[in-house]
Amino acid sequence: MKITDIVLDRLRLDLDPPLRAAWDPRPRRHFDATIVRVRTDEGVTGIGSGDTMAGFDAVKDLFLGEDPLDIARHVKAIETANFHGGRFWPLEVALWDVIGQVAGLPVSTLFGNTAKAVPAYASSAELKPPAERVETALRAREAGFRAMKIRIDRDHVADGIAAVTAVRDALGPDFAIMVDLNQSWRMAGDTAAASDLAKTRGIVRRLAELDVFWVEEPLPYEDVEGFRTLRAENPGVRIAAGEMHHSVPELLRYLENDVLDVYQMDVVLAVGMLRARTLAEVAQLKHRAFTPHSWTNGIGVLANLHVAAGVGGGPFFEFPWDPPGWTPQRRDFMLAEPLMIGSDGTLAVPARPGLGIELDEEAVARWRI
Ligand SMILES: [Mg+2]
Q1: Could you tell me where the beta strands, DSSP code E, fall in the chain?
Q2: Please, are residues 298 and 339 in contact by the beta-carbon 8 Å criterion?
Q3: Ligand 1: distance of its center to the CA of 168 in Å?
Q4: CA of 68 to the centre of ligand 1 (A)
Q5: 202 located within any domain
Q6: How far is the CA of 312 from the centre of ligand 1 (A)?
Q7: Which residues surround ligand 1, an ion (CB under 5 A)?
Q8: Are 101 and 91 in contact, with CB atoms under 8 Å apart?
Q9: Residue 352 backbone dihedrals phi, psi, to 5 degrees
Q10: Which of 7, 169, 183, 338 has the greatest number of beta carbons closer than 10 A?
Q11: Are 88 and 226 in a shared domain?
């Protein structure tokens, strides 16, 4: 079997009204997605997405003519290409989609087949006043979610704590709340300093009192000692991070030093599917949790879902959802059918061979740049 072509479609969906993502100083007036298609001489086509693939044309020939099933080789080749710029993990996603189709199995089966569905949490995007956040949380529970992640802005901590308190009061102790402080990395051009350790210690202590399930990215990635301090001081709350770590050695260092309770490497942004699986297995063998970040588009959600369900990630899986700003229709505009959880609050792994991606070709044509 041979790879005959790798085709990229660059899509741009207009967002009107814009999305005001808590971690992005600029309102998002459009949502970009790059679709990767790996074509083969046997008629099987694999699909991936989740990152820009900017600069991929310069390294595309490393893969043409190769056997798509030689996945360990391709992962190493992607790593060598990433070193020089770009993050080409959506290509690995498309290759796994080919492999699953050739095997006649869902990719999650090849990754360990631990679960057929994973409990999902509604992962919010926007900063909302307490009453509005409660309204969205109630809507989430009505839709089946049993957990929600709330953002707290470093410059408006009191407002964020008030929103978490209001949700806890309104939804009671059985609704899990995660909090993302988004302090580990920055959008390009966002030069503001992260909150310092003293301030962050106060925030995490307060969130522990509110019985928050995990606190995500409370500090910059470099502050390994700070992460360990937070964990030692707050035995009741889990510390989560790792969505955007760019290399395996960084995450291995975290694992060796037992820095986190929850490892969150996103398979389309951080270290790819195969490496994420290996690191997740190590985390689990060390009695720590893995559940990936999945804040991209529906194809990125599926790629992360297959890895999580395969290796046994959890207990909650990230499902980007914060209506009206962020809906499955916006997030999955390139899919024939937006992904949604079941009434039991779980996101089911598609049973079809491969990743189970079905593109809406009309939407792809309409939004292609
Ligand atoms: Mg996050």
Answers
A1: 3-19, 28-40, 45-48, 117-123, 147-151, 176-180, 214-216, 238-241, 262-263, 289-290, 317-320, 346-348
A2: yes
A3: 20
A4: 32
A5: yes
A6: 20
A7: 180, 216
A8: no
A9: -70, 155
A10: 183
A11: no
Question: How many angstroms does the Cα of residue 176 sit away from the middle of ligand 1?
Answer: 16
Ligand 1 centroid–CA 180 distance in Å is: 6
Q: Are strands 262-263 and 45-48 parallel, antiparallel or unpaired?
A: unpaired
Kindly state whether residues 300 and 203 are assigned to the same domain. yes
Q: How far is the CA of 10 from the centre of ligand 1 (A)?
A: 25
Going from the Cα of 296 to the center of ligand 1, the distance in angstroms, rounded, reads: 11
Residue-range definition of the domain harbouring residue 45: 3-104+360-367
Q: How far is the CA of 290 from the centre of ligand 1 (A)?
A: 14
Q: What is the CATH number of the domain that holds 37?
A: 3.30.390.10
Evaluate whether residue 97 is within a structural domain: yes
Are both 94 and 116 inside the same structural domain? no
| Residue 259: partners with Cβ closer than 8 Å, 6 or more residues away | 224, 227, 228, 231, 241, 253
Could you tell me the CATH number of the domain that includes residue 188? 3.20.20.120
What is the pLDDT tens value at each position of the chain, 369 positions in all?
999 999 999 999 999 999 999 999 999 999 999 999 999 999 999 999 999 999 999 999 999 999 999 999 999 999 999 999 889 999 999 999 999 999 999 999 999 999 999 999 999 999 999 999 999 999 999 999 999 999 999 999 999 999 999 999 999 999 999 999 999 999 999 999 999 999 999 999 999 999 999 999 999 999 999 999 999 999 999 999 999 998 999 999 999 999 999 999 999 999 999 999 999 999 999 999 999 999 999 999 999 999 999 999 999 999 999 999 999 999 999 999 999 999 999 999 999 999 999 999 999 999 999
